[in-house]
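User: I need a structural model of Ferrochelatase from Sphingobacterium corticibacter for a docking pre-check later this week. Nothing fancy, just the predicted structure tokens so I can convert them on my end. Input:
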Amino acid sequence: MKKSAKKGILLVQLGTPDKPTTRDVGRYLDEFLMDGRVIDIPYFTRNLLVKGAIVPRRAQKSAETYKTIWDEETGSPLMYYSIKQQEMLQAALGEEYHVALAMRYQNPSLPDVLGEMEGMLLESIRVIPMFPQYASATTGSVIDRVMEIVRTWQYIPAISFVNSFCDDDLLIDVIAEHAQRHDLNSFDHILFSYHGLPVRQLQKINPRKEEAPCESHGCAVCRETTNPYCYVSQCYATTRAIVQRLGLRPEQYSVCFQSRLGKTPWIQPYTSDALHDLATAGKKRLLVFSPAFVADCIETLDEIQVEYADEFKALGGEEVAMVESLNLNPKWIESLKRLALNERN
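Assistant: Understood. Predicted structure tokens for Ferrochelatase:
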């Protein structure tokens, strides 16, 4: 009896340097920031900006930051959690499936991993970009690159993509479970801090930008009324689901956006401004969620827990506590399994 072909599942994370050295971090930043969906300006200008300014100025400093979160045995936290998530999903799905992991930037690279999958003559490949909220710079970039690679194959299996899972029930369950490890009422305020994007990228994805520009309707409801793939609206959808699950009152929390790069307008309010306003208002203890990340990484381990915490304390605050990312929670793996099988609620 002929053995049935396996079904492929491809998890794709953003990426991480191979090592916390200036050279490797520079290589990572170069590949990442030269993506036309990440810095969406003309190639010539982007090339000058990235190779002539950003990478030379940031590589060494970023390498020093990576060293502070790098584990001697397991290396990059993002890589460690991603590999474990891959292994746990493989165990959950069984032998009928082949679960692979790739990074959009650096290693294991999409060309290498997809090359291996091509040789397996899989029945199908389901691609899961590991970003709960859709953005052209993340999920869109992954889908774009996968299609660019696969279109050169002679045998192309059935390909499908998960483009967002911002309010998946099990995802929300895990975030709420991790939050409940803290005494929520002991904090003066709760922040939901999402990765930011340039405002122009929101405008580009608005299908009605001529008659209904982004400024004319609220981001909090855009997903339901105008554009289901508005990144900001998906962030608010995630927040609403968590808030409802935890029973938070409107005055207990707010939404903000971190990781701004450059001087062009990004999504507001900025997390740094929110910290300043809260400190000025006399708030001392903050709890921060970062629901854009499915694994702890440099943005959660350093940017929030070190940089923002130090900034808040310098303004008179006392504590910035962090809700752990999804990481290796079995319910998160069950959520991934449902996404892989297209069985999500």
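Before docking, keep this in mind: The CA atoms of residues 184 and 319 lie 13 Å apart.
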